[in-house]
From TrEMBL:
<feature type="region of interest" description="Disordered">
    <location>
        <begin position="197"/>
        <end position="237"/>
    </location>
</feature>
<protein>
    <recommendedName>
        <fullName>1-acyl-sn-glycerol-3-phosphate acyltransferase</fullName>
        <ecNumber>2.3.1.51</ecNumber>
    </recommendedName>
</protein>
<keyword id="KW-0012">Acyltransferase</keyword>
<comment type="function">
    <text>Converts 1-acyl-sn-glycerol-3-phosphate (lysophosphatidic acid or LPA) into 1,2-diacyl-sn-glycerol-3-phosphate (phosphatidic acid or PA) by incorporating an acyl moiety at the sn-2 position of the glycerol backbone.</text>
</comment>
<dbReference type="GO" id="GO:0005783">
    <property type="term" value="C:endoplasmic reticulum"/>
</dbReference>
<keyword id="KW-0812">Transmembrane</keyword>
<keyword id="KW-1133">Transmembrane helix</keyword>
<comment type="similarity">
    <text>Belongs to the 1-acyl-sn-glycerol-3-phosphate acyltransferase family.</text>
</comment>
<dbReference type="Pfam" id="PF01553">
    <property type="entry name" value="Acyltransferase"/>
</dbReference>
<dbReference type="InterPro" id="IPR002123">
    <property type="entry name" value="Plipid/glycerol_acylTrfase"/>
</dbReference>
<keyword id="KW-0808">Transferase</keyword>
<feature type="transmembrane region" description="Helical">
    <location>
        <begin position="7"/>
        <end position="25"/>
    </location>
</feature>
<keyword id="KW-1208">Phospholipid metabolism</keyword>
<keyword id="KW-0444">Lipid biosynthesis</keyword>
<keyword id="KW-0594">Phospholipid biosynthesis</keyword>
<dbReference type="GO" id="GO:0006654">
    <property type="term" value="P:phosphatidic acid biosynthetic process"/>
</dbReference>
<keyword id="KW-0472">Membrane</keyword>
Amino acid sequence: MDVLWMIALLAIPFLMFASSTFVFYFKKFFYVAWMMLLAVVAIPLCILKSGGRDIENMRVIRFLVRHVKYLLGLRFEVSGWEHLQTEGPYVVISNHQSSLDVLGLMEILPDRCSAIAKKELIYAGTVGLICWLGGIVFINRKKTSDAKGVMADTAKVMLNEQIRLWVFPEGTRNQNGDLLPFKKGAFHLAVQAQLQRKPSRSTSQMAWKRDSPQGEPHLARPVGGLLRGRPGESSPRLSSQLQRKMVHVPIIPVVFSSYGNFYLQKEKQFKSGTIRLKILPKIETKGMTPDDVTSLCEKSFRLMRSAFLDISGTRSNGPLRH
């Protein structure tokens, strides 16, 4: 048995040199296993630090994860750092290519910033638990009504707790060399958050209920609703007096360059490489209403697609219909 183990250990360096497919699966397995191990370390640290679920736990997670890029042979070149030096709440949006995006997220993650993720992630063992402890917001992508409810609740919490949220508006992983059309959830979130009146100190805590059909806790719904006009009419522009009383929630686009030169899922290739991260200037949402969401989404898409093609060295095949 010892001889077999010795042969297996000696074979690994040879296979790493001779087989790109072996390298692909080895790195993927190592990445997942190492992240789960880091979560085991992070869970007690977060509980000791904050006593449970708290967005401040993202500091611990960020610190523990930042070295992983070196183990996978990856480097990040970041430009536009100054655009993240924005006070108050905001929504970060970025393109989504693979689970490796987590490394880029942790590379530049601002303080008091968490993310929105699919509900299935919470069941991913220790990784799911540490995501929950870090304040990540889980949504059910298969039930649009549930997702919209969570986003509405999150908009209120963003303002009450002065937090930032990272969203992948494509909605799913995409490695086709271009961006997928954006879903509008992130943009509704930014607009809804600014339409909430600035809360008093007594109402700044997160509320929980257990009246869902499954008995699961969820955020209490904010009192009141969005500004709406009559049916068939556009929403009224916000008065200047009301705008001065509100906290505006801008959108900050972050663009990852294409992974195509080092990571190819279908071809089973995972080499060393450099990822360019470009942080674009913030997009203001001041004075916007739900009727402006579509144009806000389209503007963000155009800016990010142009930056993606530029930093990836990819030629455009013409405008992509959004």
